[in-house]
Amino acid sequence: MATSTPTTLADLTARTGLDVLAHIEREVAVPVIAGLQAQGDLIVVPWQLLADVTVPSTARWQEVPAAGVVLLRGAAGGNPHTLVADAGTCRWTRTVEDPEGLALAVVENTAVVHLVHPEHGGSGIAPGRYVVRRQREGGTEAGLRGHRLIVD
Predict the structure, then answer these.
(1) The predicted structure's pLDDT at residue 54
(2) Please, where are the H alpha helices in the chain?
(3) Is the pLDDT score of 95 beyond 50?
(4) How far apart are CA 61 and CA 106, in angstroms?
(5) Measured between alpha carbons, how far is 148 from 32 in angstroms, rounded to an integer?
(6) Contact 30/38 with Cβ under 8 angstroms?
(7) Which band of pLDDT confidence, cut at 50, 70 and 90, is reported for residue 33?
(8) What mean pLDDT comes out for the span 65-72?
(9) Mean pLDDT within 117-128
(10) Does the pLDDT at position 128 exceed 70?
(11) H helix count then E strand count, the chain
(12) Highest mean pLDDT range out of 74-78, 139-143, 146-150?
């Protein structure tokens, strides 16, 4: 998905066959971020920020296929967060050791890859290594005790 001009959401949905809700502007450039980024109930964290997360040497890495890979489906089988990449530019594994139990996958990409979600549109992930985790919220506001996962 690496291009010399910014990728628009229209370009991304046309190339992948994935769709977003009608009210989302399709002619906007999809931002590409090298740092921390969130998309609904997912958060993408640069590898170096999570010293306690590891990938065992026995992990099975897979190339991201042309159709993409669903990293997380919303509550009750809802909308998917789909990772899409050009062939040979991204691999991923679900074999992750995370003491907090939030990690869903580790992603390594040599070119820009994208997350697409029907309600959130798209976001770009700059080349690097990232941990994809569930988001959680916590505190005492609004009666929260401890932490709970964000669901979208």
Answers:
(1) 97
(2) 9-16
(3) yes
(4) 9
(5) 28
(6) no
(7) very high
(8) 90
(9) 90
(10) yes
(11) 1, 13
(12) 74-78
Q: End-to-end distance of the chain based on CA atoms, in angstroms?
A: 26
44 neighbors 73 (Cβ within 8 angstroms): no
The closest alpha carbon to 114, from 104, 131, 127, 96, belongs to 127
| Whole-structure pTM value | 0.83
What tokens does 42 get? 């997912």
CA 81 – CA 47 distance, rounded (Å) = 20
Tell me how far apart the alpha carbons of residues 147 and 150 are, in angstroms, rounded to a whole number. Answer: 9
For the sheet with 37-39, list strands across it. Answer: 37-39, 42-46, 128-134, 103-109, 90-93, 62-63
Type of residue numbered 146:
G
Which pair of structure tokens corresponds to residue 87? Answer: 């062939």
Residue 79, beta-bridge partner list: none
Q: Which residue has the tokens 């993408």?
A: 44
Q: How far is CA 100 from the centre of its chain?
A: 18
Please state the domain extents for the chain: 9-138
